[in-house]
Amino acid sequence: MLFLLSACNSTSELTMEGDFRPSKESIEEVVAMVPNYAGELETMTGKGRALVSEPGNSDRVTIDFATNETRSLLTIQNRIGIEGGQMLVEQDSILIYNRLDKEAQKISIYDGRLTSLNELTSINMLDLINFKVDAENVNRLQENSSTFRLLLRNGLRVVVDRKNGRVQTVEQTIPQNSPYSRIFYESYGELNGFVLPRKITIFSADERSRVVFLVRSLETNPDRINLEIDIPDNIKIQRL
Which residue has the higher pLDDT, 90 or 16? Predict the structure, then answer.
């Protein structure tokens, strides 16, 4: 099934800071509200539009992606439909193949020197679209009138809607641990029983650039997906 979507404005205000106070609610019960499709949603394919904003540059590209629990393959097209390259995202590295320049380079997920899409490609797409929280990793729980804030042991602060548990924001309080600083989730929709965001905004660790990713179509648990880049034998992979 296709998940046909449109870019929408947020239906609620996303608050990074607010009148949060210690919550007396059960951490386990709050975490149980957060959509977690581990074991149910194992693979995914889709298409989206990425709006890139960084110092001295802004651009729009179309992205076809395929992902499982360990890998994500992104195929990039520019505004006029020319395929410029592919990115294979693994746990700690990104393999970038530039078809136009006939170059292949492998970089760390923490290295944004070579791609303006580093914020988006630094996270497994399955984990990005379905951000999961484990109750054992939650150190403290706070609340305000509309949201809960989960303070995780790894430095993340996750704000969720107190009515439905949907993730609104993820903030990294230890920037050196991640290539991103904040993630905003908006415009949720339902597909095959999965409730997933349609708009994701990711800020770089230094807050100087961001990528807005708009999901246009999505297929959950397709029968077969390709997660390999077909690089010609005569092109040597540069490791940077």
Answer: 90
What pLDDT digit, counting tens, does each position of 124-134 carry?
A: 999 999 999 99
In the numeric block, which tokens belong to residue 167?
A: 């993730």
As given in the structure block, the two tokens for residue 194 are 């999965």
Q: Is the pLDDT of residue 112 over 70?
A: no
Residues 196 and 169 sit within 8 Å (Cβ to Cβ):
no
3-state SS class at 160 = strand
Q: Please tell me the distance from the alpha carbon of residue 14 to that of residue 88, in angstroms, as a whole number.
A: 31
- E strand spans, 69-109: 72-77, 83-89, 93-98, 103-108
Angular region, 72: left φ>0, alpha ψ -120 to 50, beta rest: beta
pLDDT at 1 exceeding the cut of 80? no
